[in-house]
């Protein structure tokens, strides 16, 4: 036991000496000083332990106080929670009762607001496609917001909002009977945007600078139609823009653009001819050649008939007309007998007939060949149409209708050429026959006169 105590004392002494060595150098000490230092260190350690115990007791009291406060706060919050739960249940019961009362009191009024929401949505869709919205923008967005507001919440519409729907419908109805002029931005056919005065005809059409306009979907702006209708419709646009207070004719589209869209899609005369292809152009070329020949024959026969009529009133034969050349036979052969003179006159008439009836046969050939070529083009087009049907099927009726329409264009062209050619041939042939008949009549008179003199 003593050995352990001495060992501990030595270790403690060594520790203190090492601390003193690190803290500051001191003079060598003896055993009394060592014992004194040990006693002093034990005292300091005891004091430090007492301070720790005091601090621990103080902190334990503080922790106990905090724990008591936390328990008290928990009890208070639990009591508040129970109170709030009780109030919440009471409020729910009261709210359910008030909701039932509101539902009972509203009755058919709720149906009214449902109809109002539907009307607001329909009105918004209508105003989006109305030309009136170009002059009065923002109406469609207002109706759309009102419809969404009434559909997404249980809040009822105010009197002002109900009146806004009524006013929008009333404005649309009133403006549909007006012709209004104002300035707005117009997108031209080349994509350029310019401000120009436009004329609105009710809710049906808008025009500017002699052109029809269309409403750009989803916006309140307008643009020129890339393809305009035929000239007879554009003439009414010009008349409308130049009119003052006097009534004028105007090509109105009551569908708001549907009929106009179909009209601009219809091919014009040039496009129809292009659909005929090579056969169609050949038919038109033959028709042009036949028309030129017919005009030349008409002019020639007209002048020739006039000269023949003048020759009939003159006793002397003139060489500038067929009748004069036939009558000159009598002068050239004054002493021949009747049969010889008859043969000479027949020869002279036969000589004049080809000049009178020149190229009439070609006109007749064109009148016969043109419909046959049209039929050829139709058959060729039908073959191509059925080949397309074989490849792509019959799912698209427009494919069949378009192919058949193009195939029939050549038949139309053939008939268009054949009918006037037939009429022209009949007219010119009649004129030429009349002239030949006059020659034959005058030749018979000459023969009769010679026969009377011979007897």
From TrEMBL:
Residues 1-23 form the signal peptide. The chain crosses the membrane at residues 279-304, 361-383, 403-426. Keywords: Cell membrane, Coiled coil, Membrane, Protein transport, Signal, Transmembrane, Transmembrane helix, Transport. InterPro entries: ExbB/TolQ_transport, MotA/TolQ/ExbB-rel, MotA_ExbB_proton_chnl. Residues 60-94 form a coiled coil. It comes from the Bacteria. It is found in: Cell membrane; Membrane. GO terms for biological process: protein import. One of its GO terms (cellular component) is plasma membrane. It is a multi-pass membrane protein. Residues 330-440 form the MotA/TolQ/ExbB proton channel domain. Its main location: membrane. It holds the Pfam family MotA_ExbB. Belongs to the exbB/tolQ family. This is Outer membrane transport energization protein ExbB (TC 2.C.1.1.1).
